[in-house]
Amino acid sequence: MGRPPPLGTHRAIRCYQIGSGYRARTLARDYDGRTRAVERWGKTRAAAERALKLAVRDRARTQADQQLTADTRLSALAEAWYAALTDLSPTTMQAYRARLDRQILPGLGQLRIGELSIGILDRHFG
User: Fold this and answer.
1) Which of 63, 111, 116, 126 is the most exposed place for a label (fewest CB within 10 A)?
2) Are 109 and 73 in contact (CB under 8 A)?
3) Per UniProt, which keywords does this protein have (predicted)?
């Protein structure tokens, strides 16, 4: 197996005629290191390729903006986690928000992810 493409990029685009249009497919390497299939459709081969290139571009931009590193503050990590929650009851969402606002963010929110250790977390929650 060959070397994977760099993060946020894609491999060669393949087009297939389907019915009255075209389907364009590629393998895109996401910022979590996984390579996933991405596909888009269009009435013409060129339209399908353009749609696919835009989808890969927007996919990479969205993930790059949300990339967390050791220098990211815990407050950004907590907000990203909370924003990603779905299909939970309103009561659970309120409880999570209250815990974030009253305990986690005031006490740990300005620390960077790389600064967190078991000792710091134990001291805070203990």
Assistant:
1) 126
2) yes
3) DNA-binding
